[in-house]
Structure prediction request, 76 residues.
Amino acid sequence: MDFGSLSGSLGRTLLIFGLVLVVVGLLLTYGPRVPWLGRLPGDLVLRRGNFTLYFPLTTCILLSVIITILARIFRG
Prediction:
């Protein structure tokens, strides 16, 4: 196994993990300030007495599409 190819792939992997951490950090920091995020039509909220189930279905699909597009752009 060639050390050059190992360090190149390891470096690329660490770079991708770092970018993912930055994106997650930005979402956690600025996500609550985006008024439509988590309140799109199709996001499910069930309230029964003192129990509330919230499942942001449409938001999850939208974020998945955005992440897929960004992954395809950066992959080349």
